[in-house]
Homeobox domain-containing protein
Amino acid sequence: MASHGELRLIGENYDPGFIGMMKEDDGYGSSDDFEGALGNDQDTADNGRPPKKKKKFHRHNPHQIHELESFFKECPHPDEKQRRELSRRLALESKQIKFWFQNRRTQMKTQLERHEHVFLKQENDKLRAENDLLRQAIASAICNNCGVPAVPDEISYEPSQLMIENSRLKDELNRARALTNKFLGRHLSSSSANPSPSPSQGLNSNVEVVVRRTGFCGLNNGSISLPMGFEFGHGATMPLMNPSFAYEMPYDKSALVDVALAAMDELIKMAQMGNPLWIKGFGDGMETLNLEEYKRTFSSFIGMKPSGFTTEATRETAMVPLRGLALVDTLMDANRWAEMFPCMISRAVTIDVLSSGKGVTRDNALQLMEAEFQVLSPLVPIRQIQFIRFCKQHSDSVWAIVDVSINLSNAANALMFANCRRLPSGCVIQDMDNKYSKVTWVEHSEYDESTVHHLLRPLLSSGFGFGAQRWIATLRRQYSSLAQLMSPDIHGEDINTVGKKSMLKLAQRMAYNFSAGIGASSVNKWDKLNVGNVGEDVRVMTRKNVNDPGEPLGIVLSAATSVWMPITQQTLFGFLRNERMRNQWDILSSGRPMQAMFSVAKGPGQGNCVSILRGAAVNGSDTNMLILQETWSDACGALIVYAPVDASSIRVVMNSGDSSHVALLPSGFAILPGVQTDGPSMQPDIDENTSDGCILTVGFQILVNSVPTAKLTVESVETVNHLLTCTVEKIKAALSVTQLGSVE
């Protein structure tokens, strides 16, 4: 039983809602029910006497409970005299007083044990994570002298095994001394051969490690596999995030473990809690985070909200056709994660692996990462975020992965939270019995809204820019595409299976380069241009290609803008992907109708495919120029990307050739759903029955000079800007849009 001091301390700070509200009739609200229960043991009729009548149930009134509580705080163990005094003063029997104090002490002890259980469980999780980190550090230790692993085999910590290992090492040391004496002609002392570390050099509980910061190189044409190990064929799809520079940065690993555990706890609660933390919108409206309830429920462990920042919080749940462990493996690999979300992540890299976790389950895996998040519009700046990612397996079929922004060094990362920081965000994954997984995604961030153009602000605040709805929609579309591609029958004509996969790999590289050009990713080293005749709503950039075989050599110019279109997303998407209407806006068609040579489906629906288009012949002469095009559409947007390709290069790819040497300069359109501004919980406008509109992003990448050392002229910039403007106007005229919204 707890001591008097412990009970008094808890009694002074007692809060009935700490563990859960206790029922009055289960604890100290009444006492006669216990008395009656004791009497029932003797209520038998074996001796011929009638059973005793049960005592009438009596509930203490509020005044009595208040007086008993006040006395309990001062003396939890009253003696007989004190009980009689309380009985007289409160008009209760002495037995009732006795039973009330017994029940109250039992309840207090239970609360104490529960509180200790929660605290010890948190400490146990922390110690387990630190133990995994230390084991990883020991297993990956490298000898400073010879560069080989310091611990080549699995370590056993049994005393007998340690003695055997110590004896073996002594024998090796003696042999090394003998060889030194023989060949060097001098004696090697034990002190010089094996200097003992000073006590100050021992292992500290606050382990300070040194991490090598990694940057990002340009395009790499090495082979990269798709998520879940799927490989299209030869060549490259996306650039590997390899280091191009490095510098050392010390940080406290134990502090990161504390942050990871706190972030995981918050993510689980954010995923499971309902009202009042999450408020459901009207009808099928989205959930909105109650910021006041959030502040009462959670405490900030990454610092106060920066001044002027806006909160963005969304939650979405969906069924995804894959096993949970496959998704965990994808999310914990930086390259595969970026491949899975190419229009949302322009670059990603794992800076340091603090713990690789337990086996294939990745339980307690912890890594330090850096990524650039993007929306396909030049009017939304890229969010560059440094964060830790922590994976925890909560049961045999449930995993959770959480991200949270960190600032390792205020001096080295003064601009780390320049425009955004990510609060605990991630997903909870639960395996279901039907080979599906239930995924609950939570996105929570704070960002500087002043850096975002007013046209895109409703989209971001609704969650369809960086929110959970976009992550879930992309995840479902990507895995539907993978399921389609892995099927033995991929639709298409006059091309074998390997050729189709090689074609899809080429299209993936094209779409990735288009997204990187729209978002001005640092992967491709774009230089922004400011020209007087170009409007503020148009972003113009340039770069030089000297040795990348995946695009033409020379000076590449990129131009992009976003405009408001008063038509639905589906209407605009259907028009832009229709090859028969392409001559109404595409300068490459030269006014001629286009036709599809063949198409490879990437998922359900007609709009999710990769196609090869060819212009109609003029005067009986065939054209040698073809167009590679990829299109897709989901609830959070649509994409139409295309690039002119040489017919001979396409034939090589279709015959299972290497697609990495096919030069591409992509252009195209990104369609973002229009969001109604009546409230934050409204769904985006993607239904054809509505007419609020959508946002159209137009982007071109054009080779303006085939000589990389040539100088860029103002005329070239104005030509590309004119092409951008004319394309938008042609789309407007073709759709009979009389009130085309523009960026002001």
